[in-house]
Amino acid sequence: MERTYNIFEILVGSKGDRDFGKKPVVIQGITGSYGSTHTRLMKAYGTNIAAGVTPGKGGQDFEGTPVYDTMAEAVKASGAQISAMFVPAPFFLKAALEALDSGIKLLVAIPEHVPIRDSIKVLEHARKKGARMVGPNTPGVIVPEVMKVGIMPAQPFKAGSTVVFSRSGTLMYEVSYNLTNRGYGQKLCLGIGGDPINGTNLIEGLDLIRDRSDIDSVVVVGEIGGDAEEQLAEYIIQTSFSKPVIAYIAGRAAPKEKRMGHAGAIVYGDYGSAESKAANYAKAGVPVAKRPAEVPELLAKKLGR
Amino acid sequence: MRLLEYQGKELFDEYGIRIPSSHVAHTLHEAREGGRKLGYPLVLKSQLTVGGRGKAGAIVKCKSEVELVSKFNELLHKEVKGELPRGILLEEMADIKRELYLSLFLNRSKRCYSLISSAEGGVEIESARNKVVVDIPIDGLSAHTAEETAFKLSLNGKTVVSFVDFTTKLSRLVSEKEAELAEINPVAILGDGSLMALDAKVIIDDNSLFRHPELKKYEHVSELEKQAEVSGFSLVELDGNIAIIGNGAGLVMSTLDMVSDAGGRAAAFLDFGGRATTETIYDALKVISKINRVEAILVNLFGGIVRTNLVAQAILDAYKNNLVTVPVFARISGAEAEKARAMLIGSKAKLYNTVEEAIQAAVTAVKK
Asked: What are the phi and psi torsion angles at A76 (to 5°)?
């Protein structure tokens, strides 16, 4: 994927834009119980939910938000480039392709249990369309105190200048909460997702914020399984990434060859083990916290404040 | 879902990938029948989901029916890494000229499928030299790419044709059955230049099972796991005495790490997901109550969307109905935490401000 993808431009726009911080968002699956609950919470947080889609319910309205049968209609009416997907996993592929074909540039894929082949197909299609997927199996993306697209609670997050990337939902909340309590607010928190295949992986996450002067540090919440952390560590070295990076890795004590809740959290031999990840982080000079509460302590050391 | 060797080979057979003549036996009677059908000598292979069977002595040769009786019974009761076999596979001895390594797997960092092959079969792939790795598009491996790979492995003559046929069939299986991994180690090159799969390690993407009713028969879950699955929980049983419950896989893993750091041992990992209600927590406690070795329950909940007073109510209900008798150590952060704390006063459950404090208390309690 091209390194120039500007997630901030898509999410909030530039200061001076007429709709700065109020970019329209479409909810796929707006009338379902999950979708409707979180539509309310997102609205309450300040997100501009401009349209919803539920096939067969076009023409209705959900608490003031117009509902359409298709993504094409919803995008045409709202001008949205962002979609938050609340469709059940078996319908994910069709809904995601429809969103991309309608001009969506940021697909926030909330559902868990999406088949791997479906994720790969969506990812390939997104590449062709110059779009980006976050997830699946992600809590979504939040620009604290501005807007959120996802299912995260509001209370752990506060505006600031660090960034959190997380392979786990609740740990993203937990770690951000610890950061917030110590005075380290966040510019962006992005859920990478707990699946083996991620629409936006850690390396791409790093590239999203590399050149931003309003971001001074990065926190990476990882877990066992795969080699995303290993690849990230190598990328940090290769590209001489200059902002301080702090990591946390969940699953040190997990048994091998057991799937620990997330589809992606499984160790085969040494592949995906916490030791392998920690060893690679050490080479890249990235300190690894032993527990979530230690993250702000390590960040304080790195930043010298 | 990790298939047993014989199950993977059933799929191979369905796709025209050659496998040795074989017979699955669960009883000595079935084994004798297999022996008569296949003839001697043959190989007995313990059907396990854990690796390292060869080293553990769970694959043995067998020369006669007399030998079969003793060796079969021994294998059937032989645990490998804590796992008892689910049957013994009897197989003919193949006429092996040389061996290859072959695996088609989901390459997570490249986000595509990859084919790894090596002219050195039968050894662990990590230690194999001259590995050939090719990436495969989502539609599957082309005959052209398969042929190029065969040449890179220095195969020649009829073996090249066999290799192309064998690998493209394997690729079709991986696509159609939605496997995360199909590993064959070793693939035998027989005297006549054809290829045969001597082993099978196939892992199916669990999330795709809803559209594969034909694979349902291979599912093997314990009563407890089934109950957890119906409720939408992820459960992993462990061998300690502290059960860990929480909302979110990462959070529960993190708690498991901290319990281990504090010198405690976990009895179970239970993630009940993001949508916690009184019912889900109660059901989670119900699942945990079936595990006898549990001496303490540690609850780690990072709320926000979760209402902690609902959690407290579920714990109280579980005590009232005698579902739970062991102490509960809870860290519940989120909405209504003060209310939850007050509700639990006077019960065997205690609320802590930090997870570290809750863990310390739980570990101390089980050590008494």
From this structure: -60, -45
Query: What is the pTM for the complete model shown?
Result: 0.94
C-alpha B104 chain-centroid distance = 18
Is residue B259 helix, strand or coil?
helix
- Nearest by CB: B250 against A90, A151, A250: A250
Across the range B274-295, mean pLDDT stands at: 87
| Sign of the alpha-carbon torsion through B51, B57, B58, B64 | positive
B14/chain A closest Cα distance in angstroms: 22
Best probe of the B interface among A117, A121, A138, A195, by most B CBs < 10 A, is A117
* Coil, strand or helix at A224: coil
List B2's β-bridge partners, or say none: B203
Give the SS3 label for residue A302.
helix
pLDDT, tens digit only, all 305 positions of chain A: 445 799 999 999 998 889 999 999 999 999 999 999 999 999 999 999 999 999 999 999 999 999 999 999 999 999 999 999 999 999 999 999 999 999 999 999 999 999 999 999 999 999 999 999 999 999 999 999 999 999 999 999 999 999 999 999 999 999 999 999 999 999 999 999 999 999 999 999 999 999 999 999 999 999 999 999 999 999 999 999 999 999 999 999 999 989 999 999 999 888 999 999 999 999 999 999 999 999 999 999 999 87
C-beta atoms of B256 and A292 within 8 A: no
Could you check whether A7-134 and A155-303 share the same CATH topology? yes
Topology (CATH level 3) of domain A7-134:
Rossmann fold (3.40.50)
In chain A, what are the domain boundaries? Answer: 7-134, 155-303
Contacts of A228 in chain B (CB under 8 A): 108-109
Task: Give the pLDDT of residue A103.
Answer: 97
d(C-alpha B105, C-alpha B126), whole Å = 15
DSSP state of B302: E
Of B320, B278, B181, which Cα lies nearest the Cα of A116?
A: B181
Tokens representing residue B54 in the block: 């060869």
Q: Which long-range contacts (CB under 8 A, 24 or more apart) does B13-19 make?
A: B14/B173, B15/B169, B15/B170, B15/B172, B15/B173, B16/B169, B17/B166, B17/B169, B17/B170, B17/B173, B17/B197, B18/B166, B18/B194, B18/B195, B18/B196, B18/B197, B19/B196, B19/B197, B19/B200
Of A38, A113, A125, A262, which is the active-site residue?
A: A262
Three-state DSSP at A202 gives helix
* Interface touch B175/A117, C-beta < 8 Å: yes
Q: How distant, in Å, are the alpha carbons of A25, A26, A36, A75, B85 from that of A68?
A: 13, 10, 14, 10, 54
Q: Pairing relation of β-strands B242-246 and B112-118? A: unpaired
Q: b/e string for A189-198 if b means 16 or more Cβ within 10 A? A: bbbbbbbbbb
Inter-chain touch B247–A221, beta carbons under 8 Å: no
Beta-carbon count within 10 A of A76 CB: 14
Structural domains for chain B? 21-92 (3.30.1490.20), 96-216 (3.30.470.20), 223-367 (3.40.50.261)
Q: Is A70 helix (H, G, I), strand (E, B) or coil?
A: coil
Q: Which CATH superfamily is domain A155-303 in?
A: Succinyl-CoA synthetase domains (3.40.50.261)
